[in-house]
Description:
This protein is mainly α. It has helices at 3-6, 17-30, 34-47, 49-59, 66-98, 104-136. The relative contact order is 0.07.
Amino acid sequence: MSDVERYPERLFVRIAPEDKTGAQEVADALSISLSDLVRSLVRLAAAEPDDAARAVAASRPILLDTGCALRMARELRKWGVHYNQGIHALNTVALRIRHGDRDFTDMLEAVERAAALLEETEAAARGMRSDMATLTGRPALFL
């Protein structure tokens, strides 16, 4: 049975010359035709649609200019400072409790300050997760 009989449908794709060259190199390395490579990729994507969607999304470049990258770095640094200050305040409270300090007014202020700093950090993380999800078309996680 010929290829025309086995594969009666045709697909026309516009592709950049460097992408075609790359695809041909992959096909040559696998000792298959360019058509066989495309069929294999389509079958692979159909068999694992979630993995294929992630792979396609991951291969989509996101361009960040220097200004954007610096703003992101500044924001992440601010998160780190706030998180650090919040944890420091909680550690101070824990230390005072361990040493029997009964001045709960100072401790309450420290806990409130820590909670505010940690909430601000969490709010900023939620905002950046949302922005990143919008940019990439998929959920963003900060672990």
